[in-house]
Amino acid sequence: MTTSRRAARAELRTTPVEGGPPAELYDVHAEVWRDFDLYCEWMRDHGWGAVDSDDSRDLPLRDRLVMVCGQGTHRDVDPADRRDNATERWAVANGLGQPEYPGFPDWGRLREMGLIR
User: Fold this and answer.
1) pLDDT digit string (tens) for 46-73?
2) Cα separation, 65 vs 113, whole angstroms
3) Can you tell me whether residue 105 is helix, strand or coil?
4) Helices 61-69 & 79-93, crossing angle to 10 degrees?
5) Fewest CB atoms less than 10 Å from the CB: which of 2, 39, 92, 93?
């Protein structure tokens, strides 16, 4: 049984904000998170294909994305990790980073927007 509060929070997490993050970030079941090649293309299209680590600059895009998700091979990276990575990159790129830790998103603001729990 779902309470109205729980239903409202679930709806908030799946409703895109006009002028806000890409709609795919609200949809945990979007095809882009399940298909690694599509994910690589989506990240590249949004300009978030590279990580900022000096160690990774010479690696192919696929390997850099695997590094970001912290998994051994691209097949181990699950859809939730891909979505989380994209959400973090969107937040930082759009001024929702932590002032004291550049490159990391402001988790409180992402919660308020319904992008994370």
Assistant:
1) 776 644 444 444 445 555 555 555 444 4
2) 25
3) strand
4) 100
5) 2
